[in-house]
Amino acid sequence: MTVAIELEGLTVRAGGRDLLGSVDISIDSGQHVLIVGPSGSGKTTLLRAICGLARPWAGSVRLFGALASDGSRLLVPPAARGVGMLFQGGALWPHMSVRRTLAFVLAYSGTPRAERGRRTDELLELVHLEGLEDRLPGTLSGGEAQRLALARALAPNPRLLLLDEPLGPLDADLRASLLARLSEVQRSLGLTMLHVTHDPGEAAALADRTLEMAAGRLVGEGEPTS
Predict the structure, then answer these.
(1) Element (H, E) at 217
(2) What distance in Å separates the CA atoms of residue 30 and residue 33, rounded to the nearest whole number?
(3) pLDDT of 99 strictly over 70
(4) Hey, is 94 helix, strand or coil?
(5) Angle formed by the axes of helices 113-126 and 98-108, to 10°?
(6) pLDDT higher for 109 or 29?
(7) Which residues contact 51 (CB under 8 A, 6 or more apart)?
(8) pLDDT tens-digit series, residues 31-46
(9) Whole-model pTM?
(10) CA–CA gap between residue 215 and residue 106 (Å, rounded)
(11) Which residues, other chains included, contact 125 with Cβ-Cβ below 8 Å and sequence gap of 6+?
(12) Distance of alpha carbon 144 from alpha carbon 37, whole angstroms
């Protein structure tokens, strides 16, 4: 099986202290892996280092066998890593409608103009937002907004999707709904997903594996129990 993510000795340092301390992780292609741990344990820093938004101090990042970061060198810029990222709260552009949001990302990622309409429709169907194409983010429900953020992250056809507390702002019903949608999308697209949360209860619903972090280090590993 192809290894999607391989981290060796990954260290991120800021202000004289290690935000990540020599982390070693190997994740197979197609797996959904949950990273759990308290606030400040290094979970978000880990995602940022994988996608290229945080510069390592030492160690390496390999994505699908290709070296992306080596020590403090970012060999592959974030936009060229084939990684999608879904943030807590979505971080949507308030002035862009649902359709314009997706069209903008598709254009930025190099999708030919002739294909953007078809691809937008595919994404809307994938996340169940048909009929809401002309709505602005401020008029969407919390669950709809997060599904739009998911569609935006999937628009460039990433092989790897990073999720940073994507369910945090939602109530219990919406959390359950989005969990189910994420699981369906992951299976249908064959995505590798690395999912950060402070709530270990999410593991039973989604993850193939769980990794536990504390104080910038990997401190435990196991399989979720339902």
Answers:
(1) strand 217-222
(2) 10
(3) yes
(4) coil
(5) 130
(6) 29
(7) 78, 81, 83, 85, 162
(8) 999 999 998 999 999 9
(9) 0.86
(10) 38
(11) none
(12) 27
**Distance between CA atoms of residues 218 and 204, nearest Å:** 20
Q: Residue 225: is its pLDDT beyond 60? A: no
Query: Each residue of 155-195: pLDDT tens digit?
Result: 999 999 999 987 766 677 777 777 777 788 888 888 999 98
Cβ partners under 8 Å of residue 132, min gap 6: 98, 124, 140, 144
Round to whole Å and give the CA distance between 22 and 46.
11
**Is residue 176 classed exposed, middle or buried when 0-12, 13-18 and 19+ CB atoms within 10 A define those classes?**
middle
pLDDT of residue 204: 63
Angstrom distance (rounded) from CA 131 to CA 67: 42
Pairing label, strands 32-36, 209-214 = parallel
Q: Answer yes or no: are the C-beta atoms of 196 and 44 closer than 8 Å.
A: yes
Comparing CA positions, the residue from 181, 166, 196 lying closest to residue 50 is 196
Q: DSSP string spanning 20-65?
A: EEEEEEEEETT-EEEEE--TTSSHHHHHHHHHTSS--SEEEEEETT
The C-alpha atoms of residue 195 and residue 152 are separated, in whole angstroms, by 17
- Residue in 216, 212, 219, 211 with CA at minimum distance from that of residue 33: 211
Tell me how long the chain is.
226
